[in-house]
User: Fold Xaa-Pro aminopeptidase from Marinomonas communis.
Amino acid sequence: MNLSKAIYRERRQRLMSQLGSDNTVAVIRSGELVTRNNDCDYEFRPHSSFFYLTGYQEPNAVLFILPSGESHMAVLPKDPEREQWDGFRHGITGAMQTFGLDQAAELDELDDLALELLDGADHIALLIDDEQLRDQALNWRDQLAARARQGSVAPKGLIDMSDAVHEMRLIKDLGEIEIMERAAQISVEAHTQAMKSVRPGMMEYQLEAELNYVFMKQGARVPAYNNIVASGKNACVLHYIKNDEKIEDGDLILIDAGGELGCYASDITRTFPANGKFSEPQAQLYQVVLDAYYAGLEQMVVGAPYDAFHNAAVQVLTEGLVALGLLNGSVDELIESKAYRDFYMHNTGHWLGLDVHDCGRYKLNGEARPLEAGMVVTLEPGLYVNPDNENVDAKWRGIGIRIEDDILIQENGPFVLTHGLPKEIHEIEALMAAK
Ligand SMILES: [Mn+2]
Assistant:
């Protein structure tokens, strides 16, 4: 599921040209294994920006990119004994051949490699949030400064390359889009399977198992984030991941889950009735959220400001809350006073890519930035009526609804990467009746 090594090489060159200095060296690392408990580690997953620049997926690697784009990397060496226990390593030759690096060295030689490559550089560019690398880079700088009389020239300091990398990652190329649509379609299949297999009386985690089964079977070995399988009032807890309660007849179930494929995330939410049929209040609120979804989608066009789809969704949600009697007053004033936030307390989307909440600025010069072709954004309006909300009729209490798709911004209009998954009430009921 990797892209060609020429693409990674081009990204490294582009990054260096964007840093706009002819003598800066960039450093970035893949990250380390994290312990789960005792001697058990979580499965390794490389840092997204490192992966974006290399395609390399082994831990402990440190990549140096010279101003020309020439790339050197310190990697775990081949080690037959370790590989017998922990599995294959590319080693030095493999790293160079498979990932198009110009030079590779054993991790043991990291300090020597760093001192050689950073000697004479103006600045060291890194992701400023990487505290460990920041300390290491300052240490290399100090070591070079201490060798001034031997002719070494220490870099002046560190610069943050986060913005440059993040802006590159924000616009997806064709290879990335292909992987993202595949990830999206695996998640569509997983949600379809969940809708078909739910029965009142099941536990939430039993429904979650249906999702994980499809993710893994289709090659998305892990979910892109913790699955949310929330029945009944649990849907009002935005990041509910306990998933350990019994699904009751009459509940709505909100599932927010997406598989990760080739390190790319997908992110889908659907809300459907446990017994296959929406009750009248459930259907009424659901239709408001669905109308808000369509109003938002219309704004997901090249050139529209980033906040337009959120504002359009808020408008429709607030109108719906007034029409159904959950809010009283003028729609404009309820939006102005943010009264709708009792029922809709999150934003209507976020960037999506290697990270589920992907990188990239939402504002430029203090203003919502215009949408551009190649951006991928989620569209996820919702309504949540707190079970303890005494201000609304009891029939609404504890209903939580969200509808979320992954949208590719294109010149000719938005493309729903997660297409093919029902969201109309009659479509959902038909799919569930056919089970
Ligand atoms: Mn989302």
Q: What stands out?
A: Residues 174-197 form the longest helix (24 residues).
